[in-house]
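Following up on my earlier thread - several people asked me to post the actual chain instead of describing it. Fair enough. Here it is, all 356 residues.
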Amino acid sequence: MAGPGDPPEQTPEGTPGGGEDEYRSVVFDESFVRAARIQEYSAQERMADHAPAVRRRPPLRRGLSRQALILVMLIAVAFGTAVYMGVRSPYQSSAMRRSVEPLRMTVIPLAPLGVVPGAADPESLYAHSPAAQFRIGAEGVPLPASRRTAHFSDSQVVTALTTAKEYIVHSSLYPEVLTRQQVRPVRSLVAADQLDQFDESFSHPAADGRHAPTGWLVRFDPARTRLADDRIRVQGTLQAAETDSSTLEVTADHTFVYALRPTGADAGTAASLFTVRRELHFRFDRTDLRTHQLQLIVSYVQAGPLSCAEDSTDHLVPLLAGQTAKAGGPAGTDPYATGAATALCGSLATSAQPKV
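Reply from S.P.:
Thanks for posting it. Predicted structure:
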């Protein structure tokens, strides 16, 4: 016996052609009947008091409802937005950037053993000094032949060397920097993460091995000293090396020789030579190479003739022609204290002075 809702298993009698009657096209198969929204009760079910002849079947759910589909779409959009904002967030990229090592600096004054020699003609001074064969200006900071490293291309190594050279030229040869008029040419090359230290060095100079302007650049007090010749003599070397897969380091060692006169003196006043040796260590990560900036991590400076009694933190105060070093000097160095590197003082060898 067929169950409720099931069609008869045999063809009804009296239909011509074995059921091939005119209504064959409207006879529904079993799947159609089972999917009907209205279903007839069985005879037993209709015996119940006041039972309706038919009942409405719940709709057959085929897949997700509209509300569920909308909810899934909203979740997908929210997740995609969160991922995008996480990748693009400036706060995340800033936090992921490697912390930059602060600059460690040492500035050592070199006191002359006698009177500072001088001559009216700076060219004569240069010709009779160890700087006679030095090149003039930026020509004295040549780029070495460069080769790619295991993790950096030729162009990246050249970029590091070129940026280091620019820093050396800007911080040691620019007249506007040497006379304390500007620091912007130097500051523009410093990595963003070192700018706080750079700015604090000039706003609050301190002899603590971290915040001496003369550790960042060469500069004189314009009220006391001026250039007698802007053709500064330079000699030195640049070397690049890979320290790890993400870092290049450039080591610079250059000697600069300046011809100086007292501020306000005419051309007939004797000039003297002032020598500064700068050993600088630069560091570059891939961000620095892309922005053409650098991290200055070590600055070791020897300069003279200077008096050890003068403070060389904010600017250099050269001894000029005919002058001698003042008596006295920095207080004794406490080996248990830190950050007292600028309290060191040395003697300027006689051979480093021009023979006039």
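The two ends are 133 Å apart (CA to CA). That should answer part of your original question.
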